[in-house]
Design brief:
Length: about 110
């Protein structure tokens, strides 16, 4: 099986505690359903800084990436089907799905 990274972009935070709990429950159910193919569970990101080619540092991100998950799948189509079931989409987020390359070790 190949490995794919699902990158979380954007999304609207739940507006109240009840919505947050419901979203969290859906998310846990989704992750539980992926147990057989889950390589790295969801890793949220925070406190992002950007280092430019000139060495300057800017606080914040140049994109809306908020986290990632790594899964195993037989094909891009299978990885996309897994992504389409992600509850993150229900809160206005989107997912970028990319196959991870295996580089030779030297």
């Amino acid at each position: 099986m190949k490995q794919y990274v699902l990158v979380y972009l954007g999304g609207n935070h739940p507006t109240n505690e009840q919505e947050a709990r419901l979203h969290h429950m859906k998310y846990v159910e989704w992750l539980t359903s992926l147990e057989a193919v889950l390589v790295i569970p969801t890793i949220p990101l925070k406190d992002t800084n950007t280092v430019s080619s000139d060495g300057s540092i800017k606080e914040g991100s140049t994109c809306a990436m908020s986290g990632f998950t790594v899964i195993k799948a037989d094909s891009m189509e299978d990885a996309l089907a897994i992504a389409q079931a992600c509850p993150f989409l229900e809160i206005g987020g989107s997912l970028e799905v990319s196959e991870m390359m295996q580089l030779p070790r030297q």
